[in-house]
Amino acid sequence: MENKGCYNYAAKENNYQFLEIPYITNYFSMFIILPYERFGLSKMLKSFNVNELLDMMFATNSIEGNVVIPKFTAESSFELSQILRHLKINDAFDASNADFSGVTTDAKIHISRILQKVSVKVSEEGTKAAVATVLEDIFISNDDDTFQFTADHPFLYILADKNKNIYFVGTFYN
């Protein structure tokens, strides 16, 4: 996918580029963090500061640039029952203690397990509503007030909302 336009963009000198691609509603966005070093993703992840990332999200200015991102689809499946039990959510899984009276009249209903499947697809259509960013105290912008973002090597991507809630994190290796 190649697109020229305004994007939320930032660059941390000698480390990585940061790009925001908002979804149509502008409430959710995909963030792509691309290391400058071609095979530098694992090195970047080891030194990555999550608080720095959260500060960058939605705190930058729109900049004109050319963006090249590969089309890809990522899928993951998770069994969440054990996680919920670890969080002390046990009654819903116990036939004698489960209470779903607010949703059904069947008194014998309980949850046996919870499965979650997540799918992320990046395509030409996913780039139509794009805006961009730069955090000036930590990040530098290009002197030309334009940028080139070519994701032709491994990168980190994050799906999050405007409240900085992260819903999906993945890495792309071509």
- The ordered string of helix (H) and strand (E) elements is EEEHHEEHEEEE
- Please, what is the CATH homologous superfamily of the largest domain? Alpha-1-antitrypsin, domain 1
C-alpha geometry: elongated
**Mean pLDDT metric:** 80
Second rung of CATH, namely the architecture of the largest domain: Roll
Number of strands: 9
Ranges where pLDDT stays below 50 over 5 or more residues in a row are: 127-143
Span of the ends, CA to CA = 14 Å
Number of folding domains? 2
CATH fold type of the largest domain: Alpha-1-antitrypsin, domain 1
Count of helix runs = 3
What class do helices, strands and sheet pairing give?
Answer: mainly beta
CATH class of the largest domain: Mainly Beta
- Largest sheet, strands/sense/barrel: 7 strands, mixed
What is the strand arrangement across the widest sheet?
Answer: 7-4-1-2-3-8-9
What share of the residues lie within helices? 10-25%
- Beta-sheet strand percentage? 35-45%
Characterize the quaternary organization of these chains: single chain
Comma- or semicolon-separated keywords:
7-stranded mixed β-sheet; 174 residues; 39% strand; mainly beta; 9 strands; two-stranded antiparallel ribbon; Alpha-1-antitrypsin, domain 1; 3 helices; single chain
